[in-house]
Specification:
Layout: H1 3-24, H2 33-42, E1 51-58, E2 61-70, H3 73-78, E3 90-100, E4 103-104, E5 113-118, E6 124-131, E7 139-140, E8 145-152, H4 155-159, E9 166-168
Parallel strand pairs: 2-3
Antiparallel strand pairs: 1-2, 1-9, 3-8, 4-7, 5-6, 5-8
Helix pairs in contact: 1-2
């Protein structure tokens, strides 16, 4: 677990323990404990990662996004779970580290997503549009891919994205 995530979890634990002890002793809640608890609840451990630039080239149009890149098994397993909102110009890029058939699902994911399955050369192999929130149904890549890009549901249709379009990011070979 990253140090920042451990720290946030520790703060949440300390805040909760402080509240429990305070309540058990019948004392008023210390003013300094509440902000720690709110911080821990607002930013779940390990959920935020740095944003990277990604573009999708479709015909003569280039569409820019800021994406979180999930590189570890833990990050890929968590994905966008428990989030209820994603800005229109954001997304999440899953780096599987090697080209292989993959399957995604929407368990504990509250927002509909478009899933773009991407080959190692950066071309889109398949798009699963408006995936069903909170579903355990698996969504297969259909062929070996290196990565999956998740964007808000409906974005692919709005932008006219299609298989064969090219994704530009440092992950893909030029």
């Amino acid at each position: 677990m990253p140090i920042q995530a451990r720290t946030r979890s520790s703060l949440a634990g300390l805040a909760a323990a402080g509240l429990a002890l305070t309540a058990a002793l019948g004392l008023a809640q210390p003013a300094s404990t509440a902000p720690l608890l709110r911080l821990a609840q607002a930013a779940p451990a390990g959920q935020a990662t740095a944003l990277e630039t990604l573009a999708i080239v479709s015909g003569d149009k280039r569409h820019a996004f800021q994406v979180e890149v999930m590189r570890t098994p833990e990050q890929r397993a968590r994905g966008l779970m428990h989030r209820r909102y994603m800005p229109a110009d954001r997304g999440m890029l899953f780096d599987f580290g090697r080209t292989e058939p993959v399957a995604m699902w929407m368990e504990n994911t509250y927002i509909p997503l478009d899933m773009l399955f991407i080959r190692a050369d950066g071309t889109i192999a398949r798009i699963a549009e408006n995936t069903e929130p909170l579903s355990q149904r698996t969504i297969p890549s259909g062929e070996p891919v290196l990565s999956v890009l998740e964007v808000n549901g409906g974005v692919s249709r709005t932008l006219g994205l299609k298989p064969g379009d090219r994704v530009e990011h440092t992950l893909f070979k030029r």
